[in-house]
Structures are given as C-alpha cells and as structure tokens.
Specification:
- The protein is of the alpha/beta class and 239 residues long.
- It contains seven helices and seven strands.
- The protein has a seven-stranded parallel beta sheet, with helices on both faces.
- Strand 5, helix 4 and strand 6 form a beta-alpha-beta unit.
- Helix 1 packs across helix 7.
- The N and C termini lie far apart (36 Å).
- 43% of the residues are buried.
- It binds NADP nicotinamide-adenine-dinucleotide phosphate (NAP).
- The site of NADP nicotinamide-adenine-dinucleotide phosphate has 29 residues, from helix 1 and helix 5.
- NADP nicotinamide-adenine-dinucleotide phosphate (NAP) binds next to helix 1 and helix 5.
Amino acid sequence: MRLNNKIVLVTGAASGIGYAITELFAEQGATVFASDIKAPLKPYAEGVEALDLDVTSEAAWKEAVDAVVGKAGRLDVLINNAGIIAYEPLDELGIEAWNRMIAVDQTGVFLGMREAVRVMRPQQSGSIINISSIWGSAAVGGAHSYHAAKGAVRNMSKNAAITYVGDGIRVNSVHPGFIATPLTDAQAADLNEATIGATPMKRAGRPEEIAYGALFLASDESSYVTGTELVIDGGYLAQ
Ligand code: NAP
C-alpha cells in the first residue's frame, strides 16, 4: 500500500499505460480518478472513478479537477499520460496535423499542470508526472510533431519543477521506450519490429513496467526527486 490516502488523477486512462497506472495505483491504496475521451477497454478496478476529460479543452480540465477536489477534497498526484502519435517528417506535415499533435501531447500537459498547481500550491504538496517518451530526448527519422511535443514536455516538466519547488510540488517526466499498447498495436508491424530491434533488451516493454516507475514518483519514496527524467526503455537511450 505505497499510495495510501493519495488522491490521483490519470489522463488517457482507458487503455495502455494509463490503464496500467490506474490499476496499479488503485491496488496500492490510492483513490484514482481515471479520465479519458472514451470508455475503458476493460472495466476499471472497484473504487476507481471514471471521468470524461479531453485534455485539449481548458474548460474540461477545470471541470475535471473541480470534480476531483469536490469529491475527494484535494489532489495529490496528476499523471499527464493521454497522448497520440504520428510519423510524418516535417516536409510532409500539414498544419492541421501539427496543431492536433501539439494540442493533445503538449497543450494538454500545460493545461493539466496549470490546473493541478492551482490546487497543489495551497496544499503545499503534490506530485505531477508527465509521460514523455524516448523520442522526447533523442531522435528517430520522421515523427516531427511527436518529437516536438514530447521534447517540450521534458523541458516543461523541469521548468515547473523549479518554479514550484518552494511549494512542495514535485514534477518529473517519464520516458518510455517501445511499450506494447493499443497505440503501438495499431502501428505497422515493420515499424514496431524496427524499434524493438533497436532496443538492447530486444523486446517490447509492458505497460506495468511504466506504471511501476510512475508509482515510485507518485509515492513519498521519491520525496527528494524533482525535475528528473525517468527513462524506462530496455536500454534504448543508453546506446
Ligand atoms: P494508448 O493505449 O493509445 O492510450 C492513450 C489514451 O489516451 C487512449 O485511450 C486515447 O484515446 C487517449 N487520448 C487520446 N487523445 C486524448 C485526449 N485529447 N484527451 C484525453 N485522452 C486522449 O497509448 P499508450 O501507448 O498507452 O500511450 C500513453 C502515453 O505514453 C502517451 O502519451 C504516449 O505518447 C506515451 N508513450 C507511449 C509509448 C509506447 O510505446 N506505447 C512510448 C513512449 C511514450 P484514443 O484511443 O481514442 O486515441
């Protein structure tokens, strides 16, 4: 029970990494508010509260965080996990596709951190965990908008960590390598094989392997950890 009495909001919780975080955190004693734009692929664990939250909407963020605080009285942990991926190189990238990526993967994180800080500052405590990617700190060809957004999330996390360090708020980013989720299942098999082949462990990661990293950052075990990048990638970035 490493998260007893913690009130947690997870975005993009209906599948993949967000779902694994929701399940593990509930098992570890947290009260979890699981948000997404769709219903979960499998039912959430007992006690998990489902919320509608499109992370691109300023109004929806306010409503969701107000709902959490209205029901639970506080917000201890925010997991900014919702995300999409796209592979266009920059010369093939249209402005609409660019704007969509930035809206979900970057602006969503900005809006979420802003709403969380609004609640966490008066509490003088909180942990914000932003899911970036290995491609937030290293490059692969193509995927220009995804690199832009995930790189921004890496640095936005460090900025928020420094800005609110005096308010007892910790902010860290998590950088998964290739993880088997509905998002990667929907990708071309040769693309997935190439990424796994470039991973020293030569296998896909499991969503729970990211959830365990987030668990450390959410718990009081990481009380001296802020502004860091937790890489969970089977060795990919060590090369
Ligand atoms: P996933 O299975 O597709 O889960 C992401 C969830 O976010 C989906 O339910 C998705 O709904 C939802 N979502 C999309 N747009 C949203 C919005 N505007 N507001 C709220 N929710 C929204 O993907 P995942 O692989 O678990 O990825 C989770 C996070 O990890 C993402 O930020 C991703 O970039 C990051 N990541 C993943 C990997 C990997 O290999 N899987 C590696 C590095 C980083 P829809 O299905 O309708 O889009």
